[in-house]
Structures
1.
Amino acid sequence: MNQGSEAEQAASIIFKNIFITVVLSACHYRENETTTTVHPIKISHEDTTVKVAVKPAPKKKKRKTLYLTFDDGPNKGTRKVMHIAEKEQIPITMFIIGEHVYASREQTTTFDSLVQCKMIELENHSFSHAFNNRYVKFYTCSDSAVKDFIRCADSLHLTDKIVRTPGRNIWRTENITATDIKASTATADSLRSKGFTAIGWDLEWHFDKNLKLESTSDEVLQQIDSVFAKGKTKTPDQLVLLAHDQVYADADDSSQLSDLVKKLKAKDEYDFDIISNYPGLK
């Protein structure tokens, strides 16, 4: 081989080496360029939560129970009371006088209607109403008084032995023993010993000698609220209201009764119940 050929071979080898070096260098550079480490960047965002002040729900008033009770029926005002109870769909208790049931055909018919009325509970107010209002004699003769209540229960087929004493605010229950007039204590105790439960009242809706109400429905509503607020009921959160059937024969007075019931219902803190569900009664 001549010198020219050797020189060409050497140049060729050098060129190849240079080419390979350039290619390898370029690849190494590209690898460095495409394998860059990416570090996460924390971006702080403003808190966009809208905070709304939430008012606590108003505390609900503790519900209280009313027992609407009516004495001395059946008489001319009894049907109006019954119709109000039916219209407003509230339970009431009527303390019935035995003699009044048999006093006239109209009163007997009224009593039969009361028996059929689902909103009314019937209880014992004696047969003769204390020997026709002879209170001293009635409460002095304990045995005769007890027999008068027994006669009413038997004649009207009353079985639960709940009574209200005529003209006296007497209580004889499992939890309450109270007598407004000391002279009637013996009769009250005799009734209890014979298995009777006597129910008095916490508040009375008074009327005058002309059988007209002395207080409006608004005034009685205020009295009810006040008695509860002052804790003056015989049993906490339970109030027995006494009214009398005969007053509501008058259209204005029956309207007052209807208004009272509607206002009590509107307050939405009172429940209505019959007297046999009063605490401490068997």
Note: The beta strands are 64-73, 92-96, 120-124, 162-163, 170-172, 177-179, 197-198, 203-204, 238-244, 270-272.
2.
Amino acid sequence: MRYEPLKDRLAEWLQRRPWLGGLFYIALELLFLRNWHLRRALRSLRARIPPEQALWVLDAGTGFGLYVRRVLRLWPQARILALDLNERYLRSARRLLERNAARGRALWVVADLSRFALPSACLDLILCVDVLEHIPDDEAALRTMAAMLRPGGRLLISTPSDQGGSGVERPGQEGFIAEHARQGYNLAELCERLRNLGLRIEVARYTYGLPGQWAWRLLIRWPLPHWERPWNWFWLLPYYALALPIGLLLHWFDARLRHERGTGLLVLACSP
């Protein structure tokens, strides 16, 4: 399916109803398993980086600003650069977030990550969440991010793996999201590419093991195409009333288990 038109309509809807922002972010946090893994990763980082530290952060491909919100809650003194190629998403995120914590602490920039640069290596943390698979020139994007990290700065990546990421279940199959430039990454190869850019790997693991794969089907793959048609909503709401508790339990297990294989990857790399 094409995901962008659905997100475009959602952005327009949120522009008119910013007061629903809190509920919207709660729904994103619950429904998408990557957020469960990233919450744990960011909390682990917070244990090493004091909350009072004035971090400089880049949210690369910020979308609706979910991680702007989370970073600014974890590090109240942080300043964050929220970057996205889609101006409509940034407008929605800014309207949702600048009513409270992000006011004066976030800079909203429309730019292509593979062509973006800062004048110096000044960033303490870069988040790249489900973004690399959308970028044709991902090597340029990785070089850009590595170059912007100060010594000791970290890059946190979440992306589909080559073991069925993007919903690919057999060779040659088209992915679930039509806008992906590639269907997934090999964990060892991605880590090697980051090492070649001078980064040290701190965490490299699979996400979306068996519990997560079933949760993704239950909460995203099966129902999401039906959200494109408003007349389907009358049965989607009772569907989620039944499916959500099961999906959340599967998310809980997936975020706490170590997976030998999985359809997602989470990598944390550090600039020496």
Note: The chain has nine helices and seven strands.
